[in-house]
Amino acid sequence: MMRTFLISVLTLLCVSVAAQTPRFRSVGYKGSVSLTDQLGMFIGFDTSNGYMITPKHYIGIGAGEFMFPNGEENPLFLNAFVDYQYYMRIKSSSPFLGVRAGMSHAFKFYEKTGINFHNAVLFEPSFGWSWGLESGQGLSAGVGLPMYIPFGDKRTDMSVLPMPKLSFTFEF
Question: What are the φ/ψ torsions at residue 55 (nearest 5 degrees)?
């Protein structure tokens, strides 16, 4: 399971290598890689690549994964999503609001984990703070509330599974 986790991390990092813009949050390409923690026990990585429409509006597509570190009896989750962020100030240091919407799939499903779904719709509102660096890159920290809405599986009695999330992000 650790091997799968490491391969997932390396894949996400490799996918995110791309051209940089000289000014942080200028119109053009923008990408990010995040280390995440959900419920204080699931660790994961996300990447998002997209376009700064204006210095305040970003839209992109992304992928991510998270898992319980012991990996023996808990599923590995893979997410694919559309990502939108609104930066409240044009300055290099700015609070932001975000939302992600997409799909989630759980591999290695076990009924005894309490996470009883294979597929779910993902909806994640978030907020945080972004700091631009001199190099045109940046760092951010945020809090989100991913909500998983299971579908297509008769074994679950959940309608929505919220999983609070902390994110620490490198932006480029």
Answer: -65, -10
* Location of structure tokens 């376009």: 51
Tell which residue, 19, 89, 16, 86, has the closest CA to residue 58: 86
Phi, psi (deg, nearest 5) at residue 83: -125, 130
> Is 14 a residue whose pLDDT tops 70?
no
Angle at CA of residue 89, ends 131 and 22, nearest 5°: 55
Residue with tokens 């579908």: 151
| Cα 112 from chain centre | 26
Q: What is the pTM of this model?
A: 0.81
- Cα gap 170→172, rounded to integer Å: 7
Condensed to tens digits (0 to 9), the pLDDT of residues 117-130 reads 788 999 999 999 99
